[in-house]
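WARN  no MSA supplied for this record, continuing single-sequence
INFO  ligand: heme C
INFO  echoing inputs
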Amino acid sequence: MKVFLSLLCAALCANSAEARNPESEFHGQRTLPDSVTNRDYYDDGAPSPAKVELGRLLFFDPILSGNRNISCATCHHPSFGTSDEVSLSLGEGAKGLGPDRISSRSHIGGVYERIPRNSPALFNLGAREYTVLFHDGRVEVDKNAGYESGFISPARWKLPRGLSNALAAQAMFPVTSPAEMAGQQGENPIADARARNQVGGEGGVWDLLTLRLRSIPEYKERFSAAFPSEVRITDDIDMVLAANAIAAFEAHSFRADQSPFDRYLRGDENALSSKEVRGMNLFYGKASCSACHSGKFQTDHGFHAIAMPQVGPGKSDGWDSGYWSKSGYQAFPEDQGRGRVTGRIEDNYRFRTPSLRNVALTAPYGHSGAYPSLEEVVRHHLQPVATLHAYDGSAASLPPLNFVLEHSARGSSFLSSTP
Ligand code: HEC
Ligand code: HEC
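INFO  complex generated
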């Protein structure tokens, strides 16, 4: 009897689901990606647990910051969708987490500047297809094998060998940034090394951080467990292994391939509601979102100029005196995106197509966090230029820079040489 009922249901329930399912009404063109598998990730999705655990400790450990007051997790917190819920983060020198993070004079040094770009979510970056990282792609697997490290990066020849993948190569950089983690000249030896532009080599930023890690007995044990063939004595520990462990942690913990859409791609036709199926058909059909948001993670890993509004100081690529007088920023509020990496004018204002995995959790949107809601950023795509002109910046979430110590080295030299 039980068997009969379930067979009946298999027939009837499937039929009734079909009648409600817009899938059956869909006759347009649509190509869905293949479903995600373990093989899409480094280590086939199974990194060593000891490496992941070490990476977790390092990701949350402020010891990697010059003034020992900020960790990777401050801007990429699991409670805020691996980001921080604000348009532009307050980095080194601020206090608190997410939207409650404030700049404060009581803290070492204070905040000197806003981080110029929106802190991106870190979902699925352990998938092998991510060979280019950052909004402008400035860390990239070097396909022409020109650099010994195997990566094109802002550190060029100084980037050491032994980094296991692009995600590990990326992890070498936040610690070198004065605004993100290193701190300002005069505040600590790491910031001083950075100010001398000494990142690699003896006495450089990575070397000083290595010495800190070696001085903590628990890390000695953790590194040996995570890298049994590389770490026998304390002196075998270095920043490269730390970056490899951080990458293993990010790859493992921020993997996201269990959404209803993933279940649908794996064959569960009832995983999506009829409204969701309609949206999927538009996304992969008439609306052509998948022209750029393509593949298993909804990104072509390419760069496109879609006229996303610029919020905040940007990367100081331009000059706008009106902006300066209105905002009080001693900076040049422009960000030329991919163009500042390649030096090609046609790449100006192009930014990497973001993945849309878990996108509902990662507001605000765009490379500078211009839009607070998904609806607004999607509407922007429909009429980019008109929407850019109508944009007034009031929707951006910019934590106030109380007591900000405005300073811009390039800015002041430029200003003093301007008549
Ligand atoms: C002060 C905030 C802040 C801190 C601290 C920070 N990040 Fe980030 N992170 C950012 C911002 C902002 C970007 C985007 C920068 C850009 O694209 O120019 C970014 C980019 C990244 C990316 C690239 C993501 C992508 O899709 O391209 C990764 C990975 C990452 N961070 C990991 C880390 C790790 C690991 C640490 C610690 C070693 C760290 N971050 C510390 C703010 C921060
Ligand atoms: C021409 C390529 C292209 C097409 C087509 C496209 N996008 Fe985008 N999309 C981008 C780029 C590039 C960005 C990031 C731009 C930036 O930050 O400056 C983006 C950003 C987004 C974001 C914000 C994500 C985030 O994390 O900030 C969403 C959501 C989004 N797109 C959805 C869509 C949808 C829905 C469609 C179809 C209606 C679509 N896109 C079509 C290239 C495209």
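The chain is about 35% helix and 5% strand.
INFO  checksum written, moving to next record
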